[in-house]
Write a structure and sequence with these properties.
Arc Repressor Mutant, subunit A; 10 helices; 246 residues; Endonuclease, Chain A; 7-stranded mixed β-sheet
Length: 246
C-alpha cells in the first residue's frame, strides 16, 4: 500500500496529514529525535512539536527518554487499532444516548393552544392544506351556538374544492337535515358521513388530519391541536371503529 493511501487511512482515524506522515516515518525506525523527524519528513521543526503532541495525545507515539535526550517511537499499529476500536465503541455508546434524546424530541407531541373564533378558524384553514383523508366527529348544535350556516357553507365548499377526502361522524341532533342539504348542494363527491347513535353526545369538534388531532370546544371557543403520529393514528383507529359501528 502506498504512503498516500496509508495517510488517508490515518486521516480516517483522526490524524492530520502531516501527523500521519510522521507516524509512518517512525514506523520504519526504532526511534527518532524531533530533529531527525523534521529532516526525515521535511516538516519544519517548529511545527513538528504540534504534530508529535497530536500523535502522543492519540496514543500513536510514545516518548523514549535516553539520558538527557528525548526520542519518539511509533506504537505498534495493532495496539493503535485496539485503542481506536475502544474509542469507536465509546462513541457508539454516546451516539445511542444522543439518538435517544433526539428520538424523544422528535416524537414528543407538539401541542398548540387556541382561543377565540378567529384562532379556531385558523385550525380549519390548516386542515384544508391536508392532502389525503380527514376524519371528524362533528356536533352541529354546538357549532351553531357560535358559528352561522354561512360559516359552515363556506367551510364545506372549501372541502369540496381541495384534494382531500372527509369521513364525518355527526352527532345526532336537529341540525343534521340542514347540514346534509348544504353538503349535497356543494357536492358530496369527496365527503362521506354517518350519524352517531342517539346516546352519543358531544360538544367538541374532533378533527384528525395528517399527523394532527384538533379538539375544538365549540361552546367556549377554545382548542388544542396535538401534532404526533402515534396519537393521530390512535384517534384514526377509534374513528374507524366508530364508523363501522354507526
Amino acid at each position: 500500500m502506498e504512503n498516500a493511501s496509508l495517510i488517508e487511512t490515518l486521516k480516517e482515524m483522526g490524524l492530520t496529514g502531516k501527523a500521519g506522515a510522521i507516524y509512518l516515518s517512525l514506523l520504519g525506525k526504532r526511534k527518532m529525535t524531533l530533529s531527525e523527524i523534521s529532516r526525515e519528513t521535511s516538516v519544519k521543526r517548529a511545527t513538528c512539536y504540534e504534530h508529535v503532541d497530536e500523535l502522543l495525545g492519540k496514543d500513536f507515539v510514545i516518548r523514549v527518554p535516553v539520558g538527557k535526550r528525548t526520542f519518539y517511537s511509533a506504537v505498534d499499529p495493532q495496539k493503535v487499532f485496539t485503542t481506536f476500536r475502544r474509542r469507536i465503541s465509546k462513541i457508539e455508546g454516546s451516539i445511542l444516548q444522543m439518538s435517544a434524546v433526539h428520538e424523544h424530541a422528535v416524537n414528543r407531541p407538539h401541542i398548540t393552544y387556541y382561543e377565540g373564533k378567529r384562532q379556531i378558524k385558523t385550525i380549519y384553514d390548516d386542515l384544508l392544506k391536508t392532502v389525503g383523508d380527514v376524519y371528524s366527529i362533528f356536533p352541529a348544535a354546538s357549532f351553531f351556538e357560535n358559528f352561522t350556516e354561512a360559516d359552515y357553507d363556506e367551510f364545506d365548499k372549501s372541502i369540496s374544492n381541495y384534494a382531500l377526502k372527509s369521513r364525518d361522524l355527526f352527532v345526532r341532533d336537529k341540525h343534521y337535515k340542514k347540514i346534509k342539504e348544504i353538503r349535497d348542494r356543494n357536492g358530496p363527491v369527496n365527503k362521506l358521513d354517518k350519524r352517531l347513535p342517539p346516546w352519543f353526545t358531544c360538544n367538541v369538534d374532533v378533527l384528525i388530519y395528517s399527523e394532527k388531532v384538533a379538539l375544538i370546544s365549540l361552546r367556549d371557543l377554545s382548542a388544542i391541536v396535538i401534532e404526533n403520529k402515534d396519537i393521530a393514528d390512535l384517534f384514526r383507529n377509534m374513528h374507524s371503529f366508530m364508523w363501522k359501528e354507526s
